């Protein structure tokens, strides 16, 4: 018969608490998706929760309001903005509209793979162009590969997984040249982590009417990855073409949170600084261990493992640390996303056991 005495209940409860504490201690460090562990802001959480009261309504008005807000902030018109279910939808739409078996897609290597992967499924020929010696997009080499067969050119800036930024004036000249032949996609998902976002964005090229779309996300510094909101900025005709092929619709809770978070400068500044503090700490750790890293203007670091990167990622997994491998030509490298400071201290402790 089961012991339902007070002593028995206390014994079972005590065992459960010990087991729960052990499970918490063993929880893996989640440092692989470039998520923002400091968000969403409290205001964004409250807005998302309040939006559930109208969860039965389609959020057309909310989408229009966010679109108008973004346009006003960037000096654009609402018809120059599209709001989507994450910026990943925009990358897929670009591949859907501008790539097929008759067209090439020019991308850096390595970079965020979603657009190239989707275009490849469309039958497009992916033209890979290696980064330069400073881990940046080699814009001259990419431009040399653009021809009459090119349907898309993709630039991730800051780049993922390197965190590097290209020179803004060089990027402007590149856009002016290549967008005459193909739609240029500039992915600015991590632009808010850069030292001077207003200086390095190429939003001025949208205003100049270039054949360009800029994609951004609420998944990174805003901490809304689970609510799936992104947006793009382009000429009105480009926006209309993307709208005509839209595959999904943003949700009310995500839109509500995004509207509140978009101009929450205090939260964004705090989040940016906390991430920078973690980067500084982690870079010092790598320097102490004499482990080479790529310069970063994002929320992650790419580093040389000195061995198979995939094997190193698996080794770290056995130590309850989840990080990401990097593709060729950096197969010895890996990428670690920034967590909270306590996460990075735990990560540093594990790294020291591996490298010393």
Walk me through the structure:
With 356 residues, this protein is α/β, with parallel strands linked by helices. Helices cover 45% and strands 15% of the residues. It has helices at 6-25, 42-51, 60-74, 87-98, 114-121, 139-144, 168-178, 197-200, 203-207, 236-244, 252-262, 265-289, 309-317, 341-355; strands spanning 29-30, 81-84, 104-109, 125-130, 150-156, 183-187, 212-217, 230-234, 300-304, 321-322, 324-325, 333-337. Strand 11 and strand 12 (333-337) form a beta hairpin. Helix 3 (60-74) runs parallel beside helix 11, helix 4 (87-98) packs parallel to helix 5 (114-121) and helix 12 packs parallel to helix 14.
Which helices and strands, and how do they pair?
Blueprint (H helix, E strand, L loop, with lengths): L5 H20 L3 E2 L11 H10 L8 H15 L6 E4 L2 H12 L5 E6 L4 H8 L3 E6 L8 H6 L5 E7 L11 H11 L4 E5 L9 H4 L2 H5 L4 E6 L12 E5 L1 H9 L7 H11 L2 H25 L10 E5 L4 H9 L3 E2 L1 E2 L7 E5 L3 H15 L1
Parallel strand pairs: 1-10, 3-4, 3-5, 5-6, 6-7
Antiparallel strand pairs: 2-8, 7-8, 9-12, 11-12
Helix pairs in contact: 2-11, 3-11, 4-5, 12-14
